[in-house]
């Protein structure tokens, strides 16, 4: 079963390699979507794929890379979009 979610991750999450951390985990789990920095200092992630893989990805995002401090992860379920076929880092 597929699922999709939009995450807004706050804390010390910019300038610490968070987008590439997310990219590595998403591609390793076979997920699609994107990750990007927001002007607010937060990181936004759209992630979609098999439900178990999405949940594993979310668990990793709650931790983040070693130099990050994740204060919160706001999760919003969204509609799965089959036209998104890769996971990318957006600038």
Describe the structure.
The structure is a single chain. This protein has 91 residues and is an alpha+beta fold. It has one domain: Alpha-Beta Plaits (2-Layer Sandwich). The chain is 26% helix and 42% strand. The protein is built from two helices and five strands. The protein has helices at residues 18-28, 51-63, and strands spanning 2-12, 32-37, 43-50, 69-77, 87-90. A five-stranded mixed beta sheet has the order 4-1-3-2-5, covered by helices on one side. A hairpin with a 5-residue loop joins strand 2 (32-37) and strand 3. The protein is globular, with a radius of gyration of 12 Å. The termini are far apart. The model has no long low-confidence stretch (mean pLDDT 98).
Identify the CATH architecture. Answer: 2-Layer Sandwich
How many domains, as an integer?
A: 1
Shape summary: globular
Strand percentage, roughly?
Answer: 35-45%
Instruction: Give the uncertain stretches in residue-range form.
Output: none
Number of strands: 5
SSE pattern, N- to C-terminal: EHEEHEE
- Radius of gyration equals 12 Å
What is the average of the pLDDT values? 98
The secondary structure category is alpha+beta
Kindly provide the name of the CATH class. Answer: Alpha Beta
Strand order of the largest sheet: 4-1-3-2-5
How many H/I helical runs? 2
Alpha carbon gap, first and last residue: 30 Å
Main beta sheet strand tally, sense and closure: 5 strands, mixed
Instruction: Please bin the fraction of helical residues.
Output: 25-40%
């Amino acid at each position: 079963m597929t699922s999709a979610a939009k995450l807004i991750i706050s804390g010390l999450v910019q300038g610490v390699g968070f987008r590439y951390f997310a990219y590595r985990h998403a591609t390793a789990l076979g997920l699609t979507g994107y990750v990007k920095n927001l002007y607010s200092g937060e990181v936004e992630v759209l992630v979609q794929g098999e439900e178990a893989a999405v949940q594993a990805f979310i668990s990793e995002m709650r931790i983040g890379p070693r130099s990050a401090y994740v204060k919160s992860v706001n999760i919003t379920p969204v509609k799965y979009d089959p036209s998104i076929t890769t996971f990318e880092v957006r600038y």
